[in-house]
Amino acid sequence: MVLFREIFLTILETTTSSFRHKWLVIQTLAKISADAQIIVDLFINYDCSMRSANIFERLVIVLSRAAQGRQAVELGCSQVEEHNLRMKGLECLVSILRCMVEWSKDLYVNPHLQSNLGLDTKPLNENGDQDSGRSSSGVGGSMKRTDSVGSINSSHSNSGLSSESSKNPGDYEAVRQRKELFEKGFDMFNQDPKKGLQFLIEKNLVNQEAEDVAQFFHSYQDVLDKKVIGDFLGENNKYHKEVMYAYIDQLDFNQMDFLTALRKFLAGFRLPGEAQQIDRLMEKFASRYCECNSNLEIFASADAAYVLAYSVIMLTTDLHSKNVKKKMTKEQYIKMNRGINESRDLPEEFLSKIYDEIANEEIKLKTTTTGLRRGAGVVGTSGGVGGKVETITSDKQRQLLFNIQMKDVEVIARDLMSNAGTIRELFTIAKHLEHVRPMFQKAWSPCLAAFSVGLQDTDYIDLAMLCLTGLSCAIRIACIFRMELERNAFVQALSRFTLLTATSQVTEIKAKNVECLKTLITVAQTDGNYLGEAWYEILKCISQLELAQLFGVNANKSRMSVTNHHHHQYPSQLSNTATTFSLPFDNLFSNDKSPQNKRLHSLNEQIQETSSQSIVVSVDRIFSGSARLDGDAIVAFVRSLCHVSMDELYSSTPRMFSLLKVVEISYYNMGRIRLQWSRIWEIVGEHFNKVACNPLQDVSFFAVDSLRQLSMKFLEKGEFLNFRFQKEFLKPFEYIMKKNSSSTIRDMVVRCVTHFVDSQAKNIKSGWKNIFSVFQMAAADTDASIVELAFQTCTQIICTVFDRHFSSILDSFQDAVKCLSEFACNASFPDTSMEAIRLIRQCAKFVAEKPHMFREHAGEDLINVSEEDRVWVKGWFPVLFELSCIINRCKLDVRTRALTVMFEIMKNYGESFTQNWWRELFNVVFRIFDNMKLPDTQIEKIEWMTTTCNHALYAIVDVFTQFFDDMAGSLIEDLYSQLKWCVNRDNEQLAKSGTNCLENFVISCGQRFTPKIWERTCACILEIFRSTLPEVLMTWRPDTDPSTMATIIETSLLDRTNSSFDYAAVESASSQHNRLQRAGSVASLNSSVSTEGGEQELRQRYSPGGSGERTRAGSDYRLFQILTIKCVVQLELIQAIDNIVFYPSTSKKEDLQNIAVAQALASCAPGHRSQFVLPDEPRDDQGMYQCMNVDQLLLLVDCLVESHMFARTFNSNHEQRNLLWKAAKPNLLLQETHSIACAFRILFRLYNDSSRRECWDTLRRRIIRLTRDSIEYYLTLQSESHRDAWTNVLILLYSKLLKLDDERFKFYASDIYSIVTEVVVFDLKPELRYMIREFFLRVGNIFNINDTSLSLSLPTA
């Protein structure tokens, strides 16, 4: 190997060797390079050895330089000789690469020998495991090459070898990497010893201890700069001295004579220049020598050895330096050393022997070899001394310099050969496949440079073919070992030399470029499984090749037109007319008769060659063969093809060649296993998304049509349940509908999807989601044809497909309903909207008829949902939710229809709903009343409240009434909150409907109320009473600004919080507190929300910044409008309480009977009254009286009394009424009288109820106080009309008193007798007057002060 390294490679490296010498060497290397075993053995035994030079790396670099022809001028050779030398260098490089290919061939998988269609089969490796060519030792495995020697054409045998490879390939790689770090450290050390040593220490290659550093100097003295070592050892600091001491102490001078030991000592470094540094080194050497040879008696002490060592150095310089003219004689040398051995002389024979040996052989440094160092030219790369490059002017000078250099080489070779016997490293026979990877990592860069220069500089076809062969082999190796950087570099170089993708002129295409194209196509066919992202370069070339073929076949077609159908989306430079694009090959077919026509004719022939049958067929095989690529390879291939397609479409010359190929390979690969196909379609689908939205309508039209064809073929295969491949496949149609605004394209998408439904409905599974999504977007369109076609198809699906394939479409049921909802919300087509709502009702029918199918369906989103709840989640809820969306989004007629259908569904199918379902449903239904969703304009808001909210409110109460048992526990509070919301709106009809619905609900369901629900009901009534008291009437002033009015409103609210009515007037404080604490506790839950919610809206409406400055008149008008509504609600609520407690019309009938009796009394003659009898107390059990306890009834009485007291206070405030008279003429007489009348009815009913005996004392006190207070108030009335309004109340009161038994009547009569007598002074109506007369007669009878025969016969209670 010394011969190989120091002679062969040196001859090729040096510029002084002749062409003949180089030719002989390179011919020898050509034979060596053809043997794979030798090449791999060289690498692992030298480049992967810490003790050897990088032979393989140096060989490749030398051959690369030779192949590039850079030394032709320096060699002075002819062009033929230069060509031959370059060819030989390329042959050697190609042979090395072929050896690597041959060595690693077991890892290569030929795509033509496998198929990925159908079952995902893979070739079997030796162990019977499936292997795709990727999971080999090339990815960190340890697969060994079995019988590699026999499988490779090698002239070597195993006989005579000292060792065989037993290491793992990773071990060699680790050594090589460690070696590289060492080499870097050596270079740094030779430049700066401190930095170099620090680097080696950081990389854990050398320890920082002085002994380890010293050992490092000994071990690598052949490659380290000896001058740098000497300078380091001579430094005068503690650490350097420690290293120097350790360095010398590690030398063994046992049984050595003095001169031999000195030679060994000085062989490892060059002495530094300073005397002090030399002195320290010689002193330590003398000490170590004496230590190792303590039995020698020649030196009396180490001082003698120290002085002698110095004298030897001086003698060497004197005898062998050219600058010393007069040489020292032996006698002079002996004389110079007298007395150095402690004043005695050393033996004369000893000194004489030293002199003779120095004279014959000077002390030299050990020859520095290339050792571990990389690269070429380490040993004599120039013809000058000290590395100076000399210009060679003649062959004689070249020969002279060559001879000098060869002598130096001879000396080095002799030295290395003499030391070879001391190094005992076993030669390893390579057997592992993995050795090729690190070999190629070292060789690829020089090889790429050589092949690139060869293809660039020469037109010789034989040389070009060699370069192409080398490129093919390099690509194969890089592919096998997944070396992406190297693979991409070689493929890019190859594609660049086709000149199809280069920026250079097309007129430079030559035969070698055509051969490059053929090679590139071959690589695509044979290495497709490994190309990865390098496919882009190949497919880019094929794309450009198609363009060249287009013009090669018909040179007249030098321009291409594309019609712009969608000019408003084009860039500004495009017009809406036919646009002509210039093509890169236009210059080839010019009609000019220029001098270059002959050259252009030749060029045309080359382009015609690209259209040859062989190339066309080969290109087609690339695409048809894509079905044989493995899973990862096809993904990379498709991604690159789509990239090229986008480049084509958005270039200045839009083309669809690659887009056609995308469609083709989709057909070819559709038979793959689903996992692979889904990865392919993820890329292809995204590409179609972009292409289908291309501004060129022809392009987008083609994309959609291609999608249709692919989809039809894919849908024919069908799909198992719970898979989602169809959903992923059809996604592009959704994207196109969403992103492409062209009516033509959108119409085509709808037609394509309609075609799928018509022809493939039985095979569609998960694809239904995409279909409904497309139709949903079509539903919002304004184009009548698109909407009509989409709706017709949806109708067909609901009416026909649902019956036949409901199980397949079940997973997309809610998408279908959502799609219908979108049709219903398209205001441009009202007929379609109504029909869509009908279809939604049809969907509800399917849910009701097939609940078992929903229960059995367990989609991926229903894993944690119980079987019973699946009917709700996937069936009922989507239907009802979408109807609510229609209600919130559409105009009056459509939303009214939707509202009707929604509640019809609830009423018809609600029996199967659970309590949780009802709760979720009404969370949606109550959104109808959401303030945030109400229309913005006042007119629309009024219409919404008057129609939709009103309708919805009655419907909600009807549903609650029908399914009360299912909803009572969880939704009563929500219902009452919604009723309170309606009552507090500034819409009279909605407010009245709120109270009416509350009344109807309680009357219908009250008998099923629990005590807790009754508490909530009474609390709700209390809140409504308080929130609707028109308290602003008491504070309004005509000159009050809006901000002050807001303050007044707030103050009134605070006052009302503490109650504006003095309950102590009618009830004891303790009983009032206890009852309110029991029955009013529920009211406190929502009172702050409902009350403050309504009043806060009022504040905002009249605050200065609420909605801008309004005129005073407008503000007052709006204010009184709201107050009027509150007054109406108070009346409605009073009537509602009466109807709830006594049932509707009961109290009215009682009043009519009382008046009839009074009228009869007034019309009968004296003495005939005995024929008239007052009617009994009403005992109609249809009312809720029997269902309510005393506390609840008294709470209602308190509400009524509070309302009465407010109205009475207002009606008595004549000053305030005069102010309001001019503005709104409010009148609260009905509220004043109806509320107190209802309170009396409840109190007397309780008082006459024997089952409520425990509360009679409380009731008696309340009745007497309320009766006395009412009559006293009547006496204060000044207006005759006001007194007339109280007539019915007093008739009711006297009737109730007269119906009491004698004992009770006596109690009350004695208390109120005096004030009743005051009543008769007024001009009373006959009915009231005769009732009072009966009261007095009864008093006379009870107290025995009149004739009993004249009294009215009254039944006892």
Automatic annotation (TrEMBL):
One of its GO terms (biological process) is regulation of ARF protein signal transduction. Transmembrane segments: none annotated. Residues 171-361 form the SEC7 domain. The keyword Lipid metabolism does not apply. CDD domains: Sec7 (cd00171). It comes from the Eukaryota. One of its GO terms (molecular function) is guanyl-nucleotide exchange factor activity. It holds the Pfam family Sec7-like_HDS. SUPFAM superfamilies: ARM repeat, Sec7 domain. This is SEC7 domain-containing protein. It comes from Didymodactylos carnosus.
